[in-house]
Design goal:
Blueprint (H helix, E strand, L loop, with lengths): L15 H11 L2 H18 L6 H25 L1 H6 L15 H22 L2 H22 L6 H9 L2 H10 L4 H24 L1 H7 L4 H4 L2 H20 L10 H23 L4 H26 L1 H21 L1
Helix pairs in contact: 2-3, 2-8, 2-14, 3-5, 3-6, 3-8, 5-6, 6-7, 6-8, 7-9, 8-9, 9-12, 9-14, 12-13, 13-14
Amino acid sequence: MQNTALPGISRHNQDFLHVIQSYWQLTKPRIILLLLITTAGGMWIAAEGQVDPFLLIITLIGGAFSAGAANTINCLYDRDIDYIMERTRNRPLPSGRVSPRDALIFATILAVTAFTLLAVFANLLSAGLAMSGIFCYVVVYTHWLKRHSTQNIVIGGAAGAIPPLVGWAAVTGDLSWAAWVLFAIVFMWTPPHFWALAIMIREDYAKVGVPMMPVVEGNESTSHQILYYTLALIPVTLLLVYPLHVMGAVYAAIALLLGSIFVQKAWKLVQEPSELRVAKSLFKYSILYLMLLCAGMGIDSLPVTHRLTAALAANLGNHLVDAL
């Protein structure tokens, strides 16, 4: 990473609104939204569908700030290759709209604020986990792995799997086996999600020498890896049902339905590994998959869902007894 601004680039924020927009873009808000959904899912399960609204808001704000800090430092570190890639050239740092010094100050403020909010209004465990997420994303993924290993997104995916741990810890103050299963779900979901994107923008990564799997191993090998991870993801999601018994039949049905569609799309990519349209469809669905899976967790954990499923089970049991 260079320590000076890229040559030939000058700032061109037109007004204060554009300045705000530039800093907003540094945080990569679309990525943050997905991370917050997994955070909320962790909180919802931990609280058995009865989350304290104030704690939920504070934890989501703290999570957003910590993720924003990590993403900003990622943009700061990668501004050299972002300038080369067409897709990222207009980001705030390579375009010169934000200086490296200001970006670092901004990231520091976000991280300190996130830690303070979580430590004061939730607990130190959730605050510490949020900071570990920044460390994993910045040091382990961005600095150590991204430019040096085809397994960058596999190992680095641990950073994106930390938000549900933050949510769980904020509610309970500890980390149970269920919390670690939530971590494992996001960890296993990350390679299929990101490798589908990497297939779509393979040429960009090749241009800047980032050894993403499609660049080094090719689309065919990558598509098979995507399928393997997708197949492995389904039993991991069902661990919440058995043996942990923190989720019920509603979640199980949702997880199986969503997982089967995911596998179907992954299999289609195996058949057409160089078809960008198929990779794009898989990438978009992977986002929808995680959102709907977390929604399924929320629905299943509601007290009203417990009552309905218990009533249905009792009614079915009575009918079976009568039939016998």
